[in-house]
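Hey,
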Amino acid sequence: MNASAELLIDTASGPAHVTTPAPRATWWELAAQDPDICVTQTPTWLDCLCATGSYRDASRLYAFPDGSRIVLPLVGRVRRPRRLDAQESWPAGWGIGGPVTPEGVGHEQARAIFDDLERLPALRVGVRFRPQGAELWQRAAPGTFRLEPHMTQAVDLDGGFDAVWRDRFHTRARRDVKRAEKAHLDVEVDRTGRLVPVFQELYEQSIERWAAQQHEPPVLARWRRRREFPTGRLAEVADRFGASCALWVAWNAGEPAASIVVLRHGPHAKFWRAAMNRDVAHPVRATPLLYRLAIEEACEQGCRIFDLGESAPGSSLEHFKAGFGAAGRPSPRYWRERLPVSSVERGLRTAVKRAIRFRDA
């Protein structure tokens, strides 16, 4: 781990201390006190990111004059000059980052954090905020930061599983679950990483299916998906999260049909990944059964939220998740760049999609 550096920044209420990387003991202390903490705002998540990608810990601890403290999870790129660095919370595909704020956050503090990020020499700085407090961060964001809308869907587990099943699951989801139960599928839940190879096999099959749906050459699809989710990443996450990483697998007549990965920290359970052999899983509705069992377990473990992750508004994925009672909430990303790198990257991706007649799922 890098040695921490300390500096002072000016705020409207006086000088604040910044320590980077944030001391782990303090980060865990604040995470334990934050009632809205997400799995992806923990040091363990940052460690998984750094262990499976070219990233380094760039987290920041802010100590304000009134005694309040805020940790901002953040990573930078390894082996990049400071002015070509990208410091983000988090990079694309890693979900919600944003500040850990056990005592809440005021407008002055939020603006001070944005001002501090603006002063960083990095080429790009981006922060994906959790839904709680999103409006405050929007009011505090300076004009140099651009808004990138995102939506995350989550199931409110208040009242326990009976209430969730009765009042929040849609009729179609309950029907699919009952159909799966009649099919007498075998379901395993692994908290040791033993079933990681089974998930990886199903994930490879999913890549082929996604490629066909999106009119994408299989070679390109495999390269892109493995770059986004490289072999070894799930094993690393399972190892670091231990019993807090549940890998669910449904078997149909001895053949793996579907699998989902669910992570947990405190009151927050997070669906992370899914894969299936559609020909085996869909006729017996294996995936809805796994969602139902994972949500039930989260209720039994005392979780308040079951986070089903990001969805595009109006998409089939949003519709599917809504069947389990997941409501959409804004989870904005704010970012700034010193050069228009992202615009160039988007232009290149668009050109490639047009060339191959790519269809967004």
